[in-house]
Design brief:
By secondary structure, this protein is mainly beta. The protein contains two helices and six strands, in the order E-E-E-E-E-E-H-H. The chain has a six-stranded mixed beta sheet with strand order 5-1-2-3-4-6. Strand 2 and strand 3 form a beta hairpin. The protein is elongated and about 145 Å long. The mean pLDDT is 76.
Length: 180
């Protein structure tokens, strides 16, 4: 006949054993934590160039005398003029949100973050990818950061699918653009 011994009981706390203070806001601070980047970027460039160049010249030759009598009086003149004007304006604006993960905590406490968000609509994918460095002090109590506060930020908007394929140049057009 076997002897039945009572099992051991383990004490489990009702509270989270996290080292974080319960009186502070929960903000991303460790590898694996997530935070939301509020994208609000705009860039505008404008370039205007004017060029002009002109030159003129004239030559004259008087009639010859003596043994050079066969030379008749002659004159020649020429001019050249060039003028070019050009301008280009480019304006870009991007807004949205993307949630990223902390992939590294730097020795100074800054967080390296990275994340991708894919949205599919009618077989078209729209992808937002963000990577950069965030200061812990720039994280709001809502665990969000403005994109203007992300250092060394790389923000990439990309897409694929039937609609995006139609917005790209065809192979023949690309070849003609290279050649001409």
């Amino acid at each position: 006949m076997g002897i039945c011994l009572p099992g051991t009981a383990g004490a489990v706390s009702l509270w989270n054993d996290s080292p974080r203070n319960i009186f502070t806001d929960r903000k991303a601070s460790e590898v694996g934590d997530i935070l939301t980047i509020l994208i609000s970027e705009s860039a505008s460039t404008s370039t205007t160039k004017d060029s002009s160049n002109s030159k003129s010249g004239s030559q004259s030759l008087s009639a010859g005398t003596g043994i050079f009598g066969f030379l008749a009086a002659a004159s020649a003149s020429g001019s050249d003029s060039f003028k070019a004007n050009g301008s280009a304006t480019n304006t870009n604006k991007a807004t949205g949100t993307v949630t990223v993960s902390v992939v590294e905590v730097m020795p100074n406490g800054n967080l390296v973050v990275e994340g991708t968000q894919s949205i599919w609509n009618n077989k078209n994918e729209h992808k937002i990818t963000l990577r950069g460095i965030v200061r812990s002090d720039d994280i709001s109590y809502k665990n969000t950061v403005l994109s203007s506060k992300v250092a060394d930020a790389t923000l990439k908007f990309d897409g694929k699918g039937p609609l995006n394929a139609k917005q790209r140049q065809g192979i023949l057009t690309q070849i003609f653009n290279i050649l001409f």
